[in-house]
Amino acid sequence: MSKKEKEPGLPPLGPKYTWTGWANQQSYVAGFFILCGGILTVTFYTKLPNNPTALVAGILQMFFGALIMAIEYPFPGIHKLGVAYTNYYPRIGIYTLALAPALLQCPGQTGALCLMCAIATYLRAAVAGESAPVPRPKKGGKK
Asked: Which residues does the UniProt record annotate as the domain DUF7727 (predicted)?
C-alpha cells in the first residue's frame, strides 16, 4: 500500500468544537443569578436573624454578579484590557473568587452552581488553547 492511499481507520472527527460560546452563555446567566441573589439578600437582610454575614455577602454578590455580566457582555472597549480579556485563566480566577459569597446565602447558590459549570467549561476551553476573539475595526466605518 503506497503512502498516497488512505489507511483504514476512523473517519475524521469534523470541525473543531469551540467551548467559548457555551462558557460565555453559562457565565452570563450565572452572573445574572448571582446579581439577583445579592439583591434578594440585601433586601431581606433584616429578616435573616443571627446572620451577620448576610449584608456583606449580599453586597459582594451584587458586585461580582455585575462584574461577571460586564466581562461576558460584548460591549465596545472591553478588548482594551488585553491579555486579561483574551486569556481565560484570569476569568477563571475571578469567577472562583465570586463563588465564596454566592455560596454563603441561599438566594445566590443557584448562580454559584451555574458558575461552577461555567468555570469548568472555561477551563476546558483554556486547556484546548482557545482565547476570546478580539473585535477588529470595520473598514469604511464612520470617520
From this structure: 58-130
Residue 138 DSSP class: P
Computed from CA positions of residues 60, 65, 66, 71, in that sequence, does the dihedral angle turn out positive or negative?
positive
Q: Is 99 part of any domain?
A: yes
Stated length of the chain: 143
Grid cell for residue 80: 482594551
pLDDT tens for residues 75-106? 777 777 777 778 899 999 999 999 999 998 88
Whether residue 10 is contained in a domain is answered as no
Report if pTM > 0.85.
no
Contacts of 58 (CB under 8 A, 6+ apart): 37, 38, 39, 40, 41, 42, 45, 105
Cα–Cα nearest to 19, from 138, 119, 134, 98? 119
Number of domains in the chain: 1
Dig out the grid coordinates for 40 from the structure. 434578594
63 found inside a domain = yes
